[in-house]
Amino acid sequence: MNREECSVRLRLADEYSRLVTEFNALLDVLKVRSHPISDVVWNAAEAARTSSQKAWEALERHIVEHGCTDSLPASPGPDLGVLREMNEEES
Predict the structure, then answer these.
(1) Domains in the chain, number
(2) Residue 35 burial (CB < 10 Å; 0-12/13-18/19+)?
(3) What confidence tens digit (pLDDT) does each residue in 14-60 have?
């Protein structure tokens, strides 16, 4: 099937894009070291990372199974553990 015609791929790609955008916004908050970061923010960032990873995997799985494209965008973001350790060292 032509990749432009695959509505499922488009929906999955849109969902991944939305979730990774949310994750990146939370990463931006975590990178600002002008104030202590609460566990609520860390937990929200981890949940956003997990959601974007699952959306990525669903998109990747669909593309492989359906064969509707031959290229994928870059895999989602960093491990938050490293960022958390850096923040704790600077606090």
Answers:
(1) 1
(2) exposed
(3) 999 999 999 999 998 888 877 778 888 889 999 999 999 999 999 99
